[in-house]
From TrEMBL:
SUPFAM superfamilies: Thioredoxin-like (SSF52833). This is Membrane or secreted protein. It comes from Polaribacter glomeratus.
Length: 223
């Protein structure tokens, strides 16, 4: 019992215990800040963009599918604009991509005007494509829920390396996998998509800090 002297207990509480707590919190933070990849290496939308101006690579992208009836998910798009777009418009390399079938340009222009009435649309991207190309692109997500008339109420989160991000232990999903976020549910957008976007951006921020630290370390040793 002599080991547990008053002096040693005080030293433990002042120095060793805080260090252990810091290490445990650091490990927990690292686990928290990594958003799961649910489908790796999906097709980059640049492969089906006739204008060759739209791409997923090097961008954090929310993808949604408007379908043949553009108004099907109209309210969901307004939710997405209010709860997600306006909160992340200042984030770097952020965009929302809305894909629609060829021939729906008039309806889409009307929708853009409605969304843009009180919104800076600089990071909204609308892209037309053929039925076959839209289906091929969506199939690469490996999502079990099919498109209905080329539309879905779900929005999908794509990272800078063109991987589909989501959740592997989502309590509301049948098998735990969350591929997309229901745009018609404000609680899903607020409680899941917004949080997951923040996690993804923190993941990039942490990686950026680590790269800079490694560069500084190499510089110190003359590498």
């Amino acid at each position: 019992m002599k080991f547990f002297t008053k002096k040693r207990v005080v030293l433990f509480l002042l120095f060793i215990f805080p260090l252990i707590c810091f290490l445990l919190l650091s490990l927990g933070e690292n686990n928290f800040t990594k958003l799961p990849i649910v489908t790796p290496n999906i097709i980059d939308v640049s492969e089906i963009d006739a204008t060759k101006t739209v791409k997923l690579k090097d961008n954090v992208t929310i993808v949604c599918f408007l379908g043949n009836d553009v108004n099907t998910n109209r309210s969901g798009l307004f939710n997405l604009n209010e709860k997600i777009y306006k909160k992340f418009i200042e984030y770097k390399q952020f965009q929302i991509l809305a894909i629609y079938p060829n021939g729906k340009e008039v309806e889409v222009e009307r929708l853009k005007e409605e969304i843009g009435a009180f919104t800076d649309m600089q990071k909204w991207v609308f892209m037309a494509s053929s039925k076959e190309e839209i289906e091929t692109f969506y199939t690469s997500f490996s999502c079990a829920i099919p498109l209905v008339d080329l539309a879905t109420p779900n929005a999908f989160l794509i990272d800078k390396d063109v991987n589909l991000r989501g959740r592997l232990n989502d309590e509301d999903s049948k098998d735990g996998k969350l591929f997309g976020y229901n745009m018609n549910s404000v609680s899903v957008l607020n409680g899941k998509l917004k949080d997951d976007l923040k996690v993804l951006y923190y993941e990039y921020y942490a990686a950026f800090k680590e790269r800079n630290k490694n560069k500084a370390d190499r510089k110190e040793v003359g590498l």
